[in-house]
Amino acid sequence: MNRLAQATSPYLLQHADNPVDWWPWCDEAFAEARRRDVPVLISVGYSACHWCHVMAHESFEDETVGALVNAGFVAIKVDREERPDVDAVYMTATQAMTGQGGWPMTVFATPDGTPFFCGTYFPKPNFVRLLESVGTAWREQREAVLRQGAAVVEAIGGAQAVGGPTAPLTAELLDVAADQLAREYDETNGGFGGAPKFPPHMNLLFLLRHHRRTGSAQSLEIVRHTAEAMARGGLYDQLAGGFARYSVDAHWTVPHFEKMLYDNALLLRVYTHLWRLTGDRLARRVARDTARFLADELHRPGDGFASALDADTDGVEGLTYAWTPAQLVEALGEEDGRWAADLFDVTEEGTFEPRSAAAQDGAADAAGSGTSVLRLARDVDDADPAIRDRWRSVVGRLLAARDTRPQPARDDKVVAAWNGLAITALVEFVQVAAIRVAPDDEDANLMDGVAIVADGALRDAAEHLAGVHLVDGRLRRASRDKTVGEPAGVLEDYGCVAEAFCALHQLTGEGRWLELAGGLLDVALARFAAPDGGFYDTADDAERLVARPADPTDNATPSGRSAIVAALTAYAALSGETRYREVAEAALSTVAPIVGRHARFTGYAAATGEALLSGPYEIAVVTDDPAGDPLVAAAHRHAPPGAVVVAGRPDQPGVPLLADRPLVDGRPTAYVCRGFVCQRPVTSVDDLIAQLT
């Protein structure tokens, strides 16, 4: 009996009609394996994963494979986005056993959950042979299987251990990290490493803050070049905005088409702050359109932000997005069609071959099929106004034509941590848009409209987190259709949501958001803290797995440890309570040795380290006009890395930074403190800027 029909996870629901007798992750599944004395097959994936769909079509939808699984195993299907704790433990095991990991993840375990064989995607013939071999080994070589499992568990424990070396995260160490990134930087294509190439959003955030502190031209150029290369490549949706998960090549040409909430939230922060610091027109446009993508495509009114758009459309990867020259002419007419083909580098040879989920011969590649992913071959942001007008017209008509095509499915599961990232990013975008857009700018009306919609979406999502995900003072990981799921929040949920509530407190001046952030951080300190000053990823009263995960590295999203440190840092600055800063510094010291050796995997930790090193600055502006006061605009425009900015009336309830801070001579006044040490209050913009630069 397949037991997934009542799941809240869209990924599990995709498998509800499989002939495999799937169980969700639960104690009852392992009890059934003990009763039958059979191994457990744990299959981990997520709804937007192309190769998860491939393996499902080839194997899990096949009656013969289903019968083989059901006869010899208890099968458990796990959504890695809903249960990141389960995913983390078995991903560590998979990497220990195979040297690599990914999804779909295929794990064979004993009835107590101990993994003894791990892998990722298996084509159907290989998977059938594997099922037969594992079944035989379980029946005839049980002792060897159990020894293998014990060795894997020992490896997991070592990889996830706490109590390693610690060191202060100093300016010198952050400089070493920036130098290491510069050495690993791809000077030709931007970014780091080869294919597949992932957007290095957290490293770029760190480098922007490093540039702001040190004036490093090299750090800024790495960000600028990488941001331009990604935005002009196929990784970026040239019509609707938003970034795909990664590029299958080293030069951002062909994306893996899934669009994840967390990537777009973190990239929005990069482009927003690049725009804030430099006024770059490309960064401005991409920030605007990424914010619009989040608000229009992923936000659900009265709810939070959905997790992702699928990589596949009707089972074919990239079907919605690829174009031929003839299709451009059909949509635009002969003259504009040829012009668009040249601008977007669409050729007869093509750059992309769509692949069906039923295919078994590899991923999408540059196979010369005659279809192309749109790339921006030439600059348009600084082009002649007539060129920009023509480009905007072409984009609008192509998007209208694309909207008539089948569209990728949306994973409408709301993940707490990722919504926190989106809220923080949109708060920063709204704040920068308010100070960077002049009334006579050519896109002022569009920018204002996007900012208004983004502001509504982020507040809506925050209310959803506070009202639905927060249950009896504890966070739940995921919800769907306004119904919260059972899985408990993990450390990254507490960190990202608390940081988002701190950001919303600064945007709104409402004390409730700071109070909610403090409550979440107190739970994290009570339930997740480790003896060495670090943190575990799961609470002390959470379900016991074969190991308690405690990963300090930043990967696709900030690690739980980096996220909680960022939130503690912001909360300490906003509340004036120094003990939260002390905890943040102690936790960051457990990551510092890794920052110096593996900078690419500690970007968010390093960015937070820059904030702590700069103070962070605490900027309070007492004014009756928080939206229009020039002092507020100057504070947001010139704020150093990680600074907090609050504006409002003197002694505004629930806002500690405004307490006991009066107007000076009846005039709006800015109060600047750094690391709890304050400078003299100022009433002029020039004096405020002098204190911040």
Write a brief caption for the model.
This protein has 25 helices and 22 strands.
The helix fraction, in percent, is 40-55%
Spatial strand order of the main sheet: 1-3-2-4-5
Count of DSSP H/I helices? 25
Number of strands: 22
Oligomer: single chain
- Report mean pLDDT, rounded to a whole number: 92
For the biggest sheet, the summary is: 5 strands, mixed
Rg over CA atoms, rounded to whole Å, is 26 Å
Percent range for β-strand residues: 5-15%
Task: State the end-to-end CA separation.
Answer: 66 Å
| SSE class | alpha+beta
Q: Flag low-confidence runs.
A: 359-368
Principal-axis shape equals globular
Tag the structure with descriptive keywords:
693 residues, five-stranded mixed sheet
Walk me through this protein's architecture.
- The protein has 693 residues and is of the alpha+beta class.
- It has a 5-stranded mixed sheet with strand order 1-3-2-4-5, sandwiched between helices. A 4-stranded mixed sheet has the order 20-19-21-22, with helices on both faces. A 3-stranded antiparallel sheet has the order 8-9-13.
- The protein has 25 helices and 22 strands.
- A hairpin with a 2-residue loop joins strand 21 and strand 22.
- Helix 9 runs parallel beside helix 23 and helix 16 runs parallel beside helix 18.
